[in-house]
UniProtKB/TrEMBL annotation:
Lineage: Bacteria, Bacillati, Actinomycetota, Actinomycetes, Micromonosporales
Function according to Swiss-Prot or TrEMBL: Allows the formation of correctly charged Asn-tRNA(Asn) or Gln-tRNA(Gln) through the transamidation of misacylated Asp-tRNA(Asn) or Glu-tRNA(Gln) in organisms which lack either or both of asparaginyl-tRNA or glutaminyl-tRNA synthetases. The reaction takes place in the presence of glutamine and ATP through an activated phospho-Asp-tRNA(Asn) or phospho-Glu-tRNA(Gln).
Membrane-traversing stretches: none
GO biological process: glutaminyl-tRNAGln biosynthesis via transamidation; translation
Name of the protein this chain belongs to: Aspartyl/glutamyl-tRNA(Asn/Gln) amidotransferase subunit B
Amino acid sequence: MTTTALPTYEDAIARFEPVIGLETHVELGTQTKMFCGCRTEFGAEPNTQVCPVCLALPGALPVANRAGIEATIRIGLALNCDIATWCRMARKNYFYPDMPKNFQTSQYDEPLCAEGYVDVEYEGKPYRIGIERVHLEEDTGKSLHVGGATGRIQGATESLVDYNRAGIPLVEIVTKPVPGLGALAPEIAKAYVTELRDIIRSLGVSDVRMEQGSLRCDVNTSLNKPGEEWGTRTETKNVNSLRSVERAVRSEIIRQASLLDEGTRIIQETRHFHEDRGDTSPGRSKETATDYRYFPEPDLVPIAPDPAWVAELKAALPERPSSKRARLREDWGISEIDMQSVANAGAVELIEETIAAGASPAGARKWWMGELARRANETGIDLADIGATPLQVAELQKLVDAGKLNDKLARAVLEGVVAGEGDPAAVMAARGLEVVNDEGALTAAVDEAIAANPDIAAKIREGKVAAAGALVGAVMKTTRGQADAKTVRDLILARLS
Ligand SMILES: [Zn+2]
């Protein structure tokens, strides 16, 4: 532990130039594992989604899952990569308790996709991040350390292994080193992972949830003095939120600057990021490729995608999320920041479909980003699975526009829709939630309110129109919120003028 005070970020970045690199693992959402027919459902009972192949029992032979290969190629194409016409899987040999084969089936010098790039935008400026490779491999199982306070191996009384995840297809996306970002390195790293997540989500090949580990990020950072060679890099693991990507780069720049100031050499090692403290601690010293004794996988045939098939996949790629967002932002008339929160909430397609079903952009956005987003946050359920469809939200908005529901009643109807009580019109009828438009009933309620509040009525007669609010409130109360506030106000003013 060093006792020297750490430099500030501004101080560190004024004297050193950072070079960053990102390695991102994406768990594919295929129905079955990469080399066997086991299911891949998240959160299943431990060791219920396993078979002789993914448990590596003697004699079991793998067969590649076409859906995994297709998804990897689509990711490669979306990242502007060249797709290999012929390549092989490789064995990456190392021992780990949660890896039953004692090797990982991965790719080494023959990745399926290589030499691409991703364009990201930060504060209106474009940055091109080079992609070195996109390759296919399999995930490991999961170790659980129990009996201790922290869930870590230190202090645990026993360790259990769950092999459900072992063999789920994993795509690793490796950037080229990115120099020249200066003080913006942390922000651009975050912008890159955000863009990558959006692109992969648009392809529908993974749910890319960082908190569930279906998108995991390792961040490489090194520092050098201007004009000097690149420094030794460290690899920060366990970065499992977008915000943490930014924080991990920043904290590593500060830490390395402090060591370099002391004249200490940076060691090539992995480091663990701690969400709570926002800094890193050392992991293992980094293995080099030779430590893994890679060799071509003899149990699997080479992958030789037909160029015509690849061309078909390329032609069928969806619109790039960033261009789609720019187009929709214009159509909907909203700011960049509002569009970003829509994207972060996973609401772009939902709002788009709601508008297609007849709602106004403002109306569609109001329900998805208001009431429904709040509910999604509270319950931890995805907005898309919240229980209301774009069609239903469009119908709700139409009822509001037609004056049949006011804002408060519409919320109650939406609650019924989410609870599975049916479409908005049905919920409205069943719960008796329609706005009272019956002039006679409203006039009676208005007269009653005037009679009960003579002082307020007198003020309004004297021209103090603002006082009408209290009477509107009284009428809304007697009609149990089912009146249209503006109509009530108009009636009161007409009565007292
Ligand atoms: Zn299996």
